[in-house]
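Z., the sequence and structure:
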Amino acid sequence: MPGLAAPLIAWYRDAARDLPWRRDGFGAWGTLVSEFMLQQTPVARVIPHLEAWLARWPTPTDLASSPPADAVTQWANLGYPRRALWLHRAAVEIRDRHDGVVPRDIDALLALTGIGDYTARAVAVFAYGDRHPVVDTNTRRVLARAVEGSAQPGPPHRRDLERMDAELPDDVAASAIVNAAAMELGAIVCTARAPKCDICPLAAQCAWRAAGYPESEDRRRRQAKYEGSDRQARGAVLKALRETAPAPVPMFAVLPDWPDARQRDRAIDSLVADGLVEIEDDLLHLPR
């Protein structure tokens, strides 16, 4: 078994958090929805939204049968609302192309709206149990430290998949556990700013620890400040429209007291361009 696999598996059995998408019978649709929601959003915020979403739309066909506005409204304050629109489009594609069943094949998953390489592999591995390397930010950090001896990973690269694949055991079930364990380790132990090296199951073989924890350039992309940003203005516009949906709102009545009128107009324009808002005769509404 590859070098990291055995200690990761042993640690994960005792330390893994009890999360909805890890429970038996959760299903491929639930896994897909959770992966959409977890993008740049903390687990604690996602769980109640995920449960409410799946209670309302337990299958892709259920979501596809609702208008896009319902998806955007249900998304509420999760942030990056384009994900809601993409998820709705993916549900329509799953209904129309795959008889309402989330596909297992990675290429078929990649052909769905809003699904990139990570999400496609995550669904294939965690929902269907296939053997593929799955690499997120947490996994990349674990590999950078344990294997390469670097404090932080470099920019995402195709070789990240090759490095993770080298750590996966041949056994398919065990390989899925190693994928999940590497992510979990990066999320709760091998964290970016305060790693808990004293309780790490990889401490004995960690190249970064053996090298004396050398510093390396942190090339992670910094998220722009939210307060006062165009992203905040976009969120405020969507909130105003969600509160009145399905009734449209005159453009002049949307955030009339926003401190920067040009920013407000820019936010509306960008939401229209993204398909999150529609405009008819100076009336704004969520997509129908």
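The longest strand covers residues 278-280. The radius of gyration is 21 Å.

Let me know what you think.
H.
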